[in-house]
Design brief:
Shape: elongated
Radius of gyration: 24 Å
Order of helices and strands: HHHEHHEHEHEHEEEHEEHEHHHHHHH
Length: 437
């Protein structure tokens, strides 16, 4: 673990952190077992949070299924074009949970921590600068190193719904969402008492920081909100800090709490289809999938604990000689003897390896990974841009090897891959021909 970074809590087990949750039953029963008087909404909420803790969620709260005031500004944000190609954000159901599920009364918001012991992207970038003779590597966002969070979090939400059906006798509807429906998870989390919305637009918890996956269950159950009628959401502790706004390489923040997604590296490398704006490519640096910079610099993430969930650890790849399809290593048209081998894990993989992947290799490598969201074309496109941005940091052997790879990709039948490879190749050529004085 690198100095000054994260240190794990004595325990991230919610039941150990809050032992009272382990002792309180979810239903009031008689000594012989049958249910007694129906639970109050407050008791139901306690039941929900206790069940979530037993399933390993690090945070859980309940918000009312109402129209949140923050969503009133969504039409204006969309009108400005800040959503880019994310047309799904214009779904009118996002305005109210009642449009998502008829009769919705409550939103159960759960969170899983995904922070890792590995370096922050800002630290990693600084450490790569002097390594002239090492293969250039790309940055994959912290949240995508392990298994797809949609599946990991979604499976736990389904188990939570099943647990609640076993506890509550009356019929009710419940729909879980993990970035898969017209639900504003961050805003719901704010009103469930899980944190505040920071200037970088992320949900920030005072103890866990912002390395959080959020899931929401929209339900017709009548639950007491975690915040009482006299309670306010977690106060905004950003204060005068503007580190996240100043650190963004592409200037994606129009103002505090306001992002133009079209300039965000995460949007560009994941959601944007087709050709990337040429004026933004140099600022993308080595990012090939997502960006963590505005979270890396956040003071509340400096001592954020490390997750205890194994599925979020960087995905490991078998070493040579182990049970693996050898085509990834030996495909002749894209790999040579001196090209970097398949990496041991998904943390900061070699750019040449990424750019040389075939569609089949991409699908096999990233099966069950959030990286598949970028699509094959998008990931190779991003790797080409990152290789072009590394032009001034390549030694002679690496430069010639990258140059040959980009020439191959510039002849691709895919016009998007070909255009970005040609752009990167031009930067490599300019560096190769640059005078030495």
């Amino acid at each position: 673990m690198h100095p000054g970074k994260s240190k794990p809590w004595p325990s991230l087990d919610p039941l150990e952190a809050s032992p009272k949750l382990a002792r309180v039953p979810c239903c009031r029963r008689s000594a012989t077992g049958p249910r007694m008087a129906p639970m109050t909404p407050a008791e139901r909420t306690h039941c929900v949070t206790a069940a979530a803790a037993r399933l390993g969620f690090h945070l859980c709260g309940v918000a009312p299924a109402v129209e949140f005031p923050e969503l009133a500004r969504l039409p204006e944000w969309l009108e400005r074009g800040y959503a880019g190609q994310m047309s799904y954000l214009a779904d009118p159901r996002r305005a109210s949970p009642a449009r998502v599920l008829e009769g919705a009364r409550s939103l159960i918001v759960c969170a899983l921590l995904y922070n890792s012991e590995r370096p922050l992207s800002t630290e990693w970038t600084a450490s790569q600068a002097p390594l002239q003779h090492q293969p250039r590597r790309g940055w994959i966002s912290r949240y995508a190193w392990g298994d797809d969070y949609h599946a990991v979090l979604g499976e736990r939400l389904e188990r939570l719904v099943a647990a609640l059906r076993a506890e509550f006798p009356e019929p009710f509807e419940a729909r879980p969402y993990v970035d898969t429906g017209p639900v504003a998870e961050r805003i719901a989390a704010k009103y469930a008492g899980l944190g505040w919305l920071g200037k970088n637009t992320c949900l920030i918890h005072p103890g866990l920081g912002s390395w959080l996956f959020l899931g929401v269950i929209v339900t017709t159950l009548e639950l007491a909100p975690s915040l009482g009628p006299d309670d306010s959401p977690q106060p905004d502790l950003c204060g005068q800090c503007t580190l996240c706004l100043e650190a963004c390489p592409t200037g994606a923040f129009v103002a505090p709490y306001l992002m133009d997604a079209r300039r965000c590296i995460s949007y560009l490398t994941i959601e944007h289809r087709g050709t990337l704006p040429e004026e933004l490519r140099p600022a993308m640096g080595a990012h090939v999938f997502g960006c963590d910079i505005c979270q890396d610099v956040c003071p509340f993430n400096r001592k954020a604990p490390v997750t205890n969930i194994a599925e979020f650890s960087p995905r490991q790849f078998p070493r040579k000689g182990e049970n693996r399809n050898s085509k990834i290593e030996n495909r002749p048209e894209s790999r040579s003897a001196d090209m970097p081998p398949v990496p041991g894990e998904l943390f900061a993989p070699p750019l040449e390896w990424l750019a040389a992947l075939s569609d089949e290799e991409y699908r096999r490598t990233f099966r069950g990974s959030a990286v598949k969201r970028a699509k094959y074309r998008g990931l190779v496109r991003n790797a080409c841009v990152a290789l072009g941005n590394a032009a001034g940091r390549l030694d002679h052997a690496s430069r010639e090897r990258v140059r040959a790879l980009l020439q191959h990709l510039a002849a691709s039948a895919d016009p998007v891959i070909a255009e970005h490879a040609a752009w990167a190749l031009a930067r490599i050529e300019a560096q190769r021909l640059a005078p030495l004085y």
